Amino acid sequence: MSNQSTINKIAVPYAEALLELSKQSNLLKETTKDLSLISTTLSQSKDLQFFLYNPLTQILAKKNVLKKLFENQVNDFVLKFLLVLVDRRRIFLLVTIIDKYLNLAYQLESTLVVEVFTAIAFNETQQNNLIDAIKIITKSKYVKLVMTVDNNLIGGFYIKIGSKVIDSSLSGQLRQMSFYLNTN
């Protein structure tokens, strides 16, 4: 069994339990928003990740940092969950638990998760226009964009919806032209 599948096996029950509790407490949207904030905070700070995931760091120190960071930022319900992960020495699974939780929550809400890779960051208007277009194309009621700036792109963007890819990047268009010219 690979290390990643072991991590997934351990993380899924935590994600499912958190989802169930948030549904019972009518805090599903709040919990989803809070976990997205925590995920963003972790992804932007490698030092915080190292601190939390280091088994040599004292549990009390980890709890204090989490409380200072998130006490007025997230719901008490989510903060208590983080502290339980620290107590059980499972905080190193946090990113995986959040990913699993978000996938389950989006599935529950029938939200289509779309990965967008762009040459430059989209502003809010561009993102909303893209969401509207994707809703029309896929006939989905809710769409969640996961934006990534890809420095390898010259211009444009490409979209991944499940296993489908829509390539509107400049390099993709050049590749199509090259293929067209080589076939004639």
Give a quick set of tags describing it:
membrane, elongated, 4-stranded mixed beta sheet, Peroxidase, domain 1, 8 helices, alpha+beta, 2 domains, 184 residues
Brief overview, please?
The protein is α+β, with helices and mostly antiparallel strands and 184 residues long. It is 62% helix and 14% strand.
Write up what this structure looks like.
This protein is α+β, with helices and mostly antiparallel strands. It has two domains: 1-108, N-terminal domain of the delta subunit of the F1F0-ATP synthase (Peroxidase, domain 1, Orthogonal Bundle), CATH 1.10.520; 111-182, no CATH class. It is built from eight helices and four strands; from the N terminus they run ααααααβαβββα. It has helices at 3-24, 28-44, 46-53, 59-70, 76-87, 94-108, 124-138, 170-183; strands at residues 111-118, 142-149, 157-161, 164-167. It has a four-stranded mixed beta sheet with strand order 2-1-3-4, sandwiched between helices. β3 (157-161) and β4 (164-167) form a beta hairpin. α4 packs antiparallel against α5 (76-87). GO terms for molecular function: proton-transporting ATP synthase activity, rotational mechanism. Belongs to the ATPase delta chain family. Keywords: ATP synthesis, Hydrogen ion transport, Ion transport, Membrane, Plastid, Transport. InterPro entries: ATP_synth_OSCP/delta_N_sf, ATPase_OSCP/d_CS, ATPase_OSCP/dsu. This is ATP synthase CF1 subunit delta.
